[in-house]
Amino acid sequence: MQWQYNGTTTKSEAQLQRLIDEVITDKRFRKKDLIGCKVKTEKKRLDQYSNNGGPFDTADGWREGSVTLHLPKARVKHPSESDAPSYTITGIWMRNFMEVIKAGYKDPVAAKFHHFPFHLFRSRSTPEDPDALPERLWSEVYNADAVLREHEELQAQPRQPEDTPDVEYVVAPLLVYSDATRLANFGTASLWPIYNFFAGLTKYLRLKPSMFAAHHLAYIPSLPDGLFKAYKATYGERPSAAVVRVLKRDLMQKIWLLLVDDDFMKAYKHGVLVTCGDGIIRRLFPRIISYSADYPEKCLVAGIKFLGNCACPVCLIPKKDFINMGTKNDMKKRAKIPREDSGFLASRIAMVRSWIFKNGAAAEGDRIKGTLLHKTSTTTTQSAFSIRFAEFGKNVYDMFVPDLLHEFELGVWKATFTHLIRLLIAVGGNAVHDLDERYAVIRTFGKDAIRRFSGNVSAMKKLAARDFEDLLIPACQCSIPAFEGLMPEPYNGIVLTMLFELCQWHAYAKLRLHSEGTLSKFEAATSSLGIAMRAFKRSVCAKWATKELPSETQSRQRRAAKVAAETGKDHNTTSVKQKIFNLITYKYHRLADYVAAIREFGTMDNQTTQPGEVEHRRIKIIWPRTNKNRKAHRQIAADVQRADVLNKISARNGGSRKIRTSRDIKKRKVSGSRKRMQLRFDVSQPLPQTSPRAHFHISEDQRTWVKLNEFAAENADDPACEDFVYKLKVHILGRLPGGAAYDILPEPPLADVATVHLRGDRIYMHKVMRINWTSYDMRRSQDSVNPRTHPDIMMLAPEGSDHPFLYARALGVFHVHAYRAGPGLSPTDSEPMQIIWVRWFDLDRRAPGGFKARRLHRLKWARGDDAFGFLSPDCVLRATHLIPAFAHGKTDEALPGYSIARQEDEEDEDWIYHYVSMFVDRDMFMRYVGDAVGHQRTSYRRPEAEDGDSEGGEGDDGTQEDEDEDEDEDEDEDEDEEEDGEGSDRYADGEAADASGEDEDAGALPDLGPEDGEDSITADELLFESTGYGTL
Q1: Long-range residue pairs from 1013-1018, CB within 8 A, at least 24 positions apart, any chain
Q2: CB 315 within 8 A of CB 330
Q3: What residue spans carry the region label Disordered (predicted)?
Q4: Pick from 139, 150, 195: nearest CA to 172
Q5: Distance of alpha carbon 373 from alpha carbon 368, whole angstroms
Q6: Which of 363, 541, 767, 970 could pair covalently with 679 via S-S, beta carbons 3.0-4.6 A apart?
């Protein structure tokens, strides 16, 4: 303990526990091995060992590189660019790209690589339609078109004459990511890394932080102060902003030329023989499939102007037409005028560069504005990828994939949410305060699908991308109930429709498995989103004059003060500016490219920058270990290399992670009798890891119990407990041997009910129930149902119902030992039986929900004798997330007075309605869309096919209104910030819909995390030992 509290404050309780469990108490630990050990010496030994041909040889190690930049100046002529003054930038820490690739394919993990891409199909044939054609699916990079095309081209090439016929020729698909990140909350310390991921490894492994699948390629330096001094010493003044932009672009492209060097290009053409991790010799042909980055970096790498007239890196649609995203004309233009690399374009770039250096033309002067470069918003720096790959007919711009994180979650959604806050302020009253209160009431869901919101969501203080996603999850998940009724009609309806469309689009974009069917629906959802967004802008935003939020004013004032300090000019920034809702942005425009990108590169989790953002955390953990000076980049590189070597050693030795079981946790003695059928927060009743083959898991612990008749007597005045004993015994009777005979009776005879007994008259209460289910993408997953914190569940509706599911709130989870005894009955042993006590919901049919209505399904509390009941856990499909319909208020009509059916922190009233969170995770969304690959078919009457038109919306022409000039100015500011059943029908067949969809892997499912009273999980564990970076 003293070690933990000495020195650095970053030694957490969890790290102390891991030191004890994984080091000190490990059987391999020997104290004598540490006698005379010096950490600094051992680090040197590790570095020498890894570079001297050991089993973990790192020929792919770090080295320092340099590039030379030539310095231009307007009206200063030079014989050629090479004759212009130059400055050499050193300290570029990088690794040999080909050595990284070879090391990755030699790693034992490479035995899991898919070396041959393939088309993925699902069979559509059924007994009713045996001739149905199979349907194509998209999931991984290696079953998408880009890799399939590269593979076909490779197999058509002639083989190397020295290769034997058994040498496989395979594409090594590479996914590249780069982005600058801050290393500390204070100061200017930053790092600009380039990462590489191997697309041959399934994303279900590649995206786990614990797999360390991100290979660091290089750390890009900023333009050093020495360059500015050298420029001033040469020309007598500091470089202009235009020259600085040219130098930044040159620096990036020259670093990429160092990475994509002669060795890489030789392997690109002829391949390289590598003995892979499975022991098979293959000839690898590296191919950079995609480049993921935020918008400013896309511009930098692609060689296009930031927010130029043609601002998109993949097409030449003018910025003024971005508002028409998703219309038929817009989609035709994308196909008609793509951005293409060509020899002619390269010659124009070379010509303009000669003007700059030989003729002294200004880097962004009038002479250049009359060229092709200006018309297409192309910069004067040719992309390194164009230089290297143009001869092979590759279009450099095709690799710049959409980025869901920055373009939608931090782009379109953030801008929309921000403007909704501005509108609520303009509407007046307590709308913003009410919004904050509503968000604070929303329950959490899953391991981290929905987290607890702060009490001041509208302020958006220090919200990261994940926090904005939580506000969306997707848009309707939390936003529709939160915003409902805060604006007057008809504006309220328009806003709710837009939020639903945002929700639907985001849900399709987040799917990890797409089919032809879902992609077609995604295309329609994109068109519908465009219509809804334009209708919102035209009908709602034009109604109120909106101004900056206080935080926006402060941010603008800080930027202006910084500019004033640099230029010496005073800027008046005290007034609050008017802000309009801007749809002329690159991020909004790019939403229509997602379907095509999925077909080309696989689903968006392969393309998003989120894995890179997660890898940034690893660097930020290393940063405090450095001396934080100019050598910090080298020290980070060394630490990354050591960690890679140690991870390989740990993997070879089988690791040392200790799995926690229920025996490791101290058990607490609990008194027997309680009034509520829920366990307190401080009662520990942990569950061990669960077999994926079991549909549900409830503890067998019998320390916490209540007498059935005593419980019923204590709560006799509670409407929720009316006929509690009778209803419970009727339920048990139907599940005991021979109980099926009672299914045809409206009610079993009282004499038969009286034969049901509980051993000891005891009900054994439990804190949590876990439900295992098969997700839409054929993965086994798990929900946790806790009557105190996460009580809502869903079941399949009876066949023929017009809504697929039934909904209930779990009031208690327990098990009993039941048997029958009485005249004419043979003595039998008691049967253990798990039961859920529930309060039922009914579907509110006065408020249509679903994709056609563009509203969430609304539920109301069931009334009458069927309001409460009992359920077998086998009937539970999975947990669900219900959000109160805040706009409709509360009542006690369904359950008058105090009742234990309500949560302890609730008053003696219920929310009148609840909304079903159809979009709480990907799997839930697909249960309502239907026809998911991993789901058994849900039998119910679906509504007729739904079109993509929004009532009251505009047509597909997407006519633009007269706000373009103001919006362009607004965009420059916004984008620039990025830089710096009812009744007895409820009792379904009792079949677990997903129980038969078992994973062939018999391994245990990952623990969902702590329940009430269990040990907490630390941030480090969530980061490095989680099953992935995203939620279902």
Answers
A1: 1013/668, 1013/680, 1013/681, 1013/682, 1013/683, 1013/684, 1013/685, 1013/686, 1013/767, 1014/665, 1014/684, 1014/686, 1015/660, 1015/665, 1017/14, 1018/12, 1018/13, 1018/14, 1018/15
A2: no
A3: 937-1032
A4: 150
A5: 8
A6: 767
Six token digits for residue 492 = 């309220």
Bridge pairing between strands 281-292 and 168-178: parallel
Residue type, 350: A
In DSSP terms, 772 is beta-bridged to 782
Rg of the chain over CA atoms, in angstroms?
A: 32
Structure tokens, 591? 């939403």
For residue 195, give the H/E element and its range.
Answer: strand 193-198
- For residues 790 and 444, the answer to whether their CB atoms sit within 8 Å is yes
Supply the mean pLDDT for the chain. Answer: 83
CA 25 to chain centre: 37
Q: What span, in angstroms and rounded, lies between the C-alpha atoms of 249 and 609?
A: 21
Residues 417, 418, 421, 423: is their CA dihedral positive or negative?
Answer: negative
Domain ranges of the chain: 2-37, 63-121+132-302+611-648, 404-546+581-595, 673-937
Tokens of 466: 């994940």
162-176, 230-244, 621-635: range with lowest mean pLDDT: 621-635
The pTM assigned to this predicted structure is: 0.86
Judge whether 878 and 521 are in contact, CB under 8 Å. Answer: no
* pLDDT tops 70 at residue 823: yes
Bridge partners, residue 831, by sequence = 818
The Cα angle at residue 278 between residues 275 and 284, in degrees rounded to 5 = 45
Burial bucket for residue 519 (CB in 10 Å: 0-12, 13-18, 19+): buried
What stretches of 866-932 adopt beta strand conformation (E)?
Answer: 868-871, 876-879, 882-884, 890-891, 910-911, 913-916
User: What confidence score (pLDDT) does residue 996 get?
Assistant: 32
Identity of residue 867:
A
Transcribe 1001-1032 into DSSP letters: --SPPPP----TTSPP--HHHHHHSSS-SS--
* Other beta carbons less than 10 A from residue 321's beta carbon: 17
Residue 320 main-chain phi, psi, to 5 deg: -65, -20
In the chain, what is the straight-line distance between the N-terminal and C-terminal CA atoms, in Å?
A: 38
Which stretches of 675-723 are DSSP H helices?
708-714
pLDDT at 592 over 60: yes
Paired residues of 817 in beta bridges: 832
d(CA 772, CA 784): 9
The residue type found at 137 is L
Instruction: For helices 491-510 and 465-472, give the axis angle rounded to 10 degrees.
Output: 120
CA-wise closest residue to 477 among 434, 515, 506, 436: 506
Q: At residue 519, what is the residue type?
A: L
Tell me, what amino acid is at 421? I
What's at 440, amino acid-wise?
A
Tell me the C-alpha distance between 113 and 696, whole Å.
Answer: 33
Identify which of 105, 141, 101, 120 has the alpha carbon closest to the alpha carbon of residue 290: 141
- Looking at the predicted structure, is the pLDDT value of residue 827 above 70? yes
Strand partners, 713: none
- Cα 149 to its chain centre, rounded Å, is 28
Closest-CA residue to 946 (of 525, 545, 435, 558): 525
The residue among 830, 832, 841 whose CA lies nearest residue 814 is 832
Nearest to 618 by CA among 162, 104, 193: 193
Residue 998's nearest CA partner among 773, 724, 763 is: 773
**E strands, 12-55, in order:** none
**The residue type at 14:** A
Of 335, 325, 316, 298, nearest to 374 by C-alpha is 316
